[in-house]
Amino acid sequence: MTTHAKSPEDVPAEPTAKRLPSAVVARLTVYLRALNGFVAEGVERVSSEELADASGVSSATLRKDLSQLGSYGTRGVGYEVENLLQHLSAALGLTRDWRVAIVGAGNLGRALARYGGFETRGFEVVALLDTDPQIIGNEVGWLRVADAANLESIFKRTRANMAVLALPGSAAQQACDRVVAAGVRSILSFAPAILQVPRGVTLRKVDMATELQILAYHAQRGEAGGQTGEDEHGEPAAGTASA
User: Annotated binding site for NAD(+): which residue ranges?
Assistant: First the structure.
């Protein structure tokens, strides 16, 4: 019987408690999306080069990222797609039951509530809240807009453990404080404001105007003959090719 040397090419290890750099975590989500694509196509095994190509990174970057999870396998055989997908999902915390409440039922909040991609990636939107009497009670998809005055009881009833703030900047901090007081420790904010949260709460901010300004900066560099495939940490960005 022939034995093969192990290399960081294949089967992933158990999720690690090691804190990964944000750029690595971002790329792991891209690898997961690529793996889901392979599953949909009925592919059972892929090489590091094939997975890297589908993810828009170099195979060296891919192997380095997976090695941080303690991923090892058989050189030259490739990754077992389902197995790697399951372990990446576990490493990213996607095997947990994530129940999302959206605070703010304006145009953005309603669009997020209707987005079907959340459920396919392991996130169930369980509540949509607002303070506007003209919006409260309206149906958005399968949800009915609830009164944000009852935020705490709604979060308890729906067992929401993740919140999205789709609010004006002026209302965001107060809503954020109430969400934290309700026991939620994972918050995604679209509000154009700097929010303060206590230790132990993870806050991610999406500011589309800021992102456009960053794009304008890079576009200007590109026009001057430069190109960028880096994220905010100076590492190869997920979805961009690296040398």
Answer: 104-109
